[in-house]
Amino acid sequence: MKHLHLFDKLPKLSNSLEVLKKHFFSVRFLTAFNILTVLVLGGLSVYAKLNKQGDAVERLFSDPFNFWFPYEGILTGVSEILWCTPVAICAFTFGVLRQKNPRSRSPLFLFFSALLLGFFFLDDRFRMTLIISRLGISKKLIYLCYGSAVLLYGVKFGRYIKTTPYLPLVAAFILFAISRFGDMLNLPSQGVHAMLEDGTKLLALLNLALYFWYVCHHEVWRHFQQSENR
Question: Which tens digits make up the pLDDT trace of 151-165?
């Protein structure tokens, strides 16, 4: 009798699996990113097993936590969160607005903002500038390229930026410039160097996050109002 009761539940279980499968594959990028992540992790597992590199793979997931100094790196973590905030909300808002008019000024501004800030985040998080400089390329040249990208960004979207409360955005890029300048200085005081480089960067990221939060909120709200008036 127990076996029969179990067999009675099999069709319900099969239907539940079909529903889950339907929902999972209804979002294409969800399927693609999950499959890609599983393949990468599986490849790492096979590599670690064949080459006896389990410790090396474990370091990829290691938590940079110091028991004796639990506050160590806490402001760096805050900076990384602030980096992700404008990138995420700009990309999301672009996805909402592009359905209305993908070639209008605001979606393009938010798209290139997400692209520019996303690149700067990757550079900061994975120390790309440091790696490139170790290959013999001057940091000054790298920062000049970054500054040129910001200048082109400002020229391209200057008119739109003027229609927004742009002071936090301008302040953020000035603070970033100070931060990069502090990176090139060899100051004797570690505390002064940290504040000049990392403190100004944290303040810049705070202004960026607040600015794009306001702009994205305003654009989405205006988009919904226009949709209701139609």
Answer: 999 999 999 999 999
